[in-house]
Description:
Blueprint: H1 2-22, H2 31-37, E1 44-45, E2 72-73
Parallel strand pairs: 1-2
Protein name: Antifreeze protein
Keywords: Signal
Organism: Lentinula aciculospora
Amino acid sequence: xxxxxxxxxxxxxxxxxxxxxxxxxxxxxxxxxxxxxxxxxxxxxxxxxxxxxxxxxxxxxxxxxxxxxxxxxxxxxxxxxxxxxxxxxxxxxxxxxxxxxxxxxxxx
Length: 108
């Protein structure tokens, strides 16, 4: 009787250890969401801070540097966010689509 209880306990322990080795615990926070939280509220230039911006059709995104995964734009000014309806910005959802593509803008 004691032998079967010991065997059952050892088998259960071995199976638990094997399961942990096969299925590693993961953090529930997405890496992309974490990097987005560090992006700030104003899009920076795709050519500053080692961003090396990707000019894909899906949008502008830093692909390297400390802001990898963050949105970026071309000709942005971190000290000034212009109106979405001026200077050829053609802003949609507070992001320029025309001139200054990818830069933050404000609806007026």
